[in-house]
Structure formats: structure tokens, C-alpha cells
Fold:
Amino acid sequence: MVIEPGNNTNPQSSATGKARQETPRVEGQTARGNSPANAAGDADSVSLSDASRAIAKLEASVIEAPDIDRAKVAAVKAAISAGDYQIDAQAIAGKIQRQESQLG
Structure:
């Protein structure tokens, strides 16, 4: 469907043939779309909680952390090669159960 200017079939058109256009407003906005505080020229501001700052700091430290602990990988490889690597199935099962219970 193509809408062409001047081809107005809106029954609420004004006498000049142009459709009456209204912009939906959110309660508390002025006609220019500004909130009442901004209508006076006040600037917007944002403040972060202590928790959000802590999360941002944690996120930055995770980004900087190496993906692989190469020393640990080398130690495990050496233990496997020497036949000294012991697997504690009970400890692994317990950690899996604990993680599952935390997920709900």
C-alpha cells in the first residue's frame, strides 16, 4: 500500500484537507515532549548505587583476568602423564549437586 501526500481519507481532517496530527503524550510531559523538570531547563542526571559500582568493578577485573591458568594446566598435564592425577568422584558429585540446588 502506498500513501501519497494530499490523498487524505481521514474523517477527522480539518477544512484545509490536512489530517489532524496528534503526538501521544506521556502523563507529566509538556507539549514539547519534555518532562516538567526539563521544561525549566534542568539537566538530566543519573546516579549509580554502590551495588552497580561493585558490579562494574568486578566486570572490569573479569575482563582483565586471563582465560586460562596455564600453570595449573601444566601441573594437571604433568600429573596425568606421571599417572599421579587422582579424581575425587565424591567431591565432583557434591559440587554438581550444590550447583544444581542453587539453580533451583
In short: Residues 47 and 84 are 54 Å apart (CA to CA). Residues 50-103 form one domain. Confidence is low (pLDDT under 50) at residues 13-19. Helices lie at 36-39, 50-64, 70-82, 89-103.
